[in-house]
Write a structure and sequence with these properties.
Chain A is an alpha/beta fold and 276 residues long. Chain A has helices at residues 67-74, 114-118, 120-124, 131-143, 159-171, 189-205, 218-224, 258-273; strands spanning 22-33, 41-52, 56-60, 82-87, 90-91, 99-102, 177-181, 210-215, 227-231, 238-243. In chain A, the strands form two sheets. A six-stranded mixed sheet of chain A has the order 6-7-8-3-9-10, with helices on both faces. In chain A, strands 2-1-4-5 form a four-stranded antiparallel sheet, with helices on one face. The relative contact order of chain A is 0.19. Chain B is mainly α. The chains are: A alpha/beta (276), B mainly alpha (254).
Chain lengths: 276, 254
């Protein structure tokens, strides 16, 4: 499978860091939709990569390149046509209870308050939604700036606020792996910057988690991630894997630096490379 | 704030005033042109009949209300139950749903004589007709509600490793409530129709029976008095469903 080999002519090789345990291992995973030889569409070409424990990885690619499909397979919500995925040392066959997922839409229950939406994972698992769990949910909502909105319904909240509730819901049961599928792509640019800051803050305060963030925004990927994987146009394959050198905590001002823009330019080149 | 309360007042006062005006015109026409009371009794005649025969009407209203509510309740249980069952089993759904849709295209009232042959002329046939006629809107609405559940919410549940039952109980069922209640509102009015028609065909009690008997005696005033009471029954039962909807919404909101 030489096609799966990722280009590593990088600014800084991804494996320069001391070896930590692979938390997520994606091994020659391929996804083909449709049956019959003619209708078949290859959404994801054989892709191989790993994510180390505690690492924040951004998966960057143009719309429709199969990056969301790849994330859904790591979530266990979609099955690979070929290849295998190992999460926390176990082959993945179904969704894991210890994975937190954020979708493109906030996906809130419209009839439940913000707080009850955050508590929803406990309700699903028939675990107590009172006591410590409730306190944690309330604390999370306060930390994303929703103090005073605990009892508002999703319909009474703005798009950014709803996605904040979704962040809290994904974190409330302390998942070890956080998967985010373009969670801010439907928001306007200003709200998006704001949400990146909120996510960054939450992330830096709960460092022990591993995260995969799918996006088509180059700047968002560079701003948020420790490492950026670039996926080519459909059928998607990993064509670049670089480490982002900025120290944490990061402020939005790193976006103004020469280094930041140089990395963005490099990534843009990688995305466009195959389309011409 | 003031404009809003004025709008609300207008929404009540306007139709009430118009209705009162119509009754007044009716009364005036009957009195002025000296219409025979047998053909068209004046509103005052209907009111008098309602007052004089209230014990009779009341007595006949009891079985009608009883059969309506029982048929409606049974239809609700069957409709919600079957729709829920079909939402769990793809096989059952594909086998049954098209059949039910076809049966529902037949005018349900046409089955009434058959039910009377099958279960007799007692309350059982009225209950069967009411249940049968009220079942379809509830079933179809519940199916639509369960089908319309936001797929992303179902996917969220899957991601949270919810069992199908848990997903049904926490997401699909609550999400289908607005659909269900629109079906229930149609069903409750249809249940009244079913009972009345069944009473027309064969019964010795109920408002349908009273209307038919009054027609034979040319007691038009009593017919219209019975219809007035039917109106009140219809409104009250519709209000009951509406109150149920508000209660469910409040419970969900909590």
């Amino acid at each position: 499978m030489s096609t799966a080999a990722t280009s590593r002519r990088t600014i800084e090789p991804a494996f320069a860091s001391p070896a930590a345990a692979d938390y997520v291992a994606v091994d020659r995973v391929r996804k083909v939709y449709g049956t019959g030889t003619r209708q078949q569409v290859e959404a994801v070409a054989a892709s191989t990569f790993t994510i180390k424990a505690g690492e924040f990885v951004a998966l960057l690619g143009p719309s429709g390149c199969g990056k969301s499909t790849l994330l859904m397979m790591i979530a266990g919500l979609d099955l690979p046509s070929e290849g295998a995925i190992v999460v926390a040392g176990r082959p993945l066959t179904a969704p894991r209870a210890q994975t937190g997922i954020m979708f493109q839409d906030p996906t809130l229950l419209p009839w439940k308050s913000a707080l009850d939406n955050v508590l929803f994972p406990f309700q699903v698992a028939s675990r107590p939604a009172a006591g410590g769990n409730r306190l944690r949910a309330m604390a999370l909502l306060d930390r994303v700036g929703l103090e005073g909105f605990h009892h508002h319904k999703p319909g009474q909240l703005s798009g950014g606020m709803r996605q904040r509730v979704a962040i809290c819901r994904a974190l409330v049961y302390e998942p070890d792996l956080l998967l985010m599928d373009e969670p801010f792509s439907a928001l306007d640019a200003i709200t998006r910057d704001e949400m990146n800051l909120v996510l960054m803050k939450m992330w830096e305060e709960e460092k022990h988690r591993t995260a995969l963030f799918v996006t088509h925004s180059i700047r968002e990927a560079v701003y948020l991630a420790d490492r950026v994987l670039v996926m080519s146009r459909r059928p998607g394959r990993i064509v670049e894997d670089i480490r982002i050198p900025f120290a944490r905590p990061r402020g939005l001002e790193i976006g103004e630096t020469v280094e930041f823009n140089r990395i963005c330019g490099h990534l843009r080149g990688k995305i466009d490379h195959r389309s011409h | 704030m003031l404009a809003a309360s004025f709008d609300r007042l207008r929404a009540v006062v306007l139709p009430a005033a118009f209705g009162a005006g119509l009754l007044l015109a009716w009364q005036a026409v009957v009195v002025l042109f000296d219409y025979p009371k047998v053909i068209l009794p004046a509103p005052s005649d209907i009111a008098l009949a309602l007052h004089a025969d209230l014990p009779v009407i009341w007595q006949q209203a009891i079985p009608t209300v009883r059969d309506t509510l029982a048929g409606f309740a049974l239809a609700a249980v069957l409709g919600v139950g079957l729709a829920s069952l079909l939402s769990f089993s793809r096989l059952l759904r594909d086998a049954l749903y098209p059949l039910i849709v076809v049966i529902q295209l037949v005018p349900k009232i046409a089955w009434t004589p058959l039910f009377i042959v099958w279960v007799g002329i007692g309350w059982q046939s009225r209950l069967t007709v009411a249940t049968f006629i009220a079942f379809f809107p509830i079933f179809i609405a519940m199916m639509a509600g369960l089908d319309s559940t936001d797929r992303s919410l179902v996917r969220l549940c899957r991601g949270l490793t919810a069992t199908p039952w848990r997903t049904f109980w926490l997401v699909r069922l609550p999400a289908s409530m607005p659909y269900l209640f629109s079906g229930l509102k149609i069903a409750i009015t249809l249940a009244v129709i079913g009972v009345i028609v069944a009473e027309f065909i064969s019964s010795s009690e109920g408002l349908g029976f009273l209307i038919l008997k009054s027609a034979a005696l040319l007691r038009t005033d009593l017919i219209l008095a019975s219809i007035t009471v039917l109106c009140v029954i219809g409104l009250a039962s519709y209000g009951l469903v509406h109150a149920g909807e508000l209660a469910v919404r409040r419970w969900q909101g909590g």
